[in-house]
Amino acid sequence: MNAFLRSLAPVWIALRAVLRNKLRASLTILSITIGIAAVVLMSALVGGASAKIQGQISSIGNNALIVFPQSARASGARTAQTGSKLSELDCLALERESTSIRIAVPFLRSSVQAVYEGRNTKAEVIGSRLGYLDVGAWKVVRGEPWTTTSESVSEKVVLIGANTAKELFGSSDPVGRLIRIGKYPYRVLGVLGEKGPSPFGQSQDDLVLMPISTMRSHVRATRPNETDAIMMSATSSETTDRAKKQAEAILRQRHNISEGSEDDFLIRSQAELQKIQGAVFGVLEVLLLGVAGVSLVVGGIGVMNIMLVSVTERTREIGIRMAIGAREADILVQFLVESLVLATLGGAVGALSGYGMIVGLSIRFDLPMTLSANALAIALGTSTLIGLIFGFFPARRAARMDPVQALARE
Q: Which of 45, 87, 127, 252 could disulfide-link to 257, CB 3.0 to 4.6 Å?
């Protein structure tokens, strides 16, 4: 029992020394607190932003791929683009000839002003086929979609996004009412579920969706079968890459692109966007944590500085302890414990402060930020490690003092 109490003596002495210099201890703890809070906050911020972007990419659709037209390169220079070379016939060929493409739909887009009685709002109108709802994972939360007959006869019917419905109708039910786009009235068949912003920053809910035949007839004239882009859905997430390769081969053949010539189209997949996003946020996380790590090093240097000052001030005390039987190990443990107490308290306060900032920022910016158990463990472990590393040199200096010289100091 006596041996156990003797082993605890350096701990009690170290805690009393910390409490005896409250202002100095508080400032040292603050330096560690700032560093730990920065690490915790940066980790949560990057994770939250990554999760939000990941959700936006997932909202594009079900295993989605998008085909865009692009100008071809001739003799080292790009030729002028005169309209899209993609067509609805390409969609039919992609569905018919590919084994990995479940569905392909054309779409046209344009910016319009939608009007209902005394209200109006700017919206993006998209003309497509019924399959667009499937590819884009859209849900009709009120009303119902149009029919294939509506596409055949270019019926003036629309589905509207959540924001468009709110701006034009407020809390009223828009189903069955007429809105005006340009000089034509369109009957609202339903309201689409809310999706939020796309990965490219635009709102997906400021939307008016109509049959592509209706759009060609009444909103935007195009060449027969021309489409701005093609949306496709792979049969599964595992077949996305194969679907892309098959689509490239089919379109090159249909567009008579010879071997070695550049494509007049560009295919982007949902999986590619997710990989790009992961790589970007991986680099960003390393950079931000590096910056936060610098503040931790600065805090550690502060701990070392304070401990060196403490050793210098208490030289005579160290000499007295050695004179009455304290071993070198006792002195080393005493000052290491002081350093650990300062760093660990700083880590705990920093983690709590970081958690408070995470909660506040997640509410303010609508980010899914959380303090993970791993981040908390790393924060507390890092603060403890800082206490050991930056406290060891001052503690060793104190332990190796000559008792006679230490007692001679005033």
A: 252
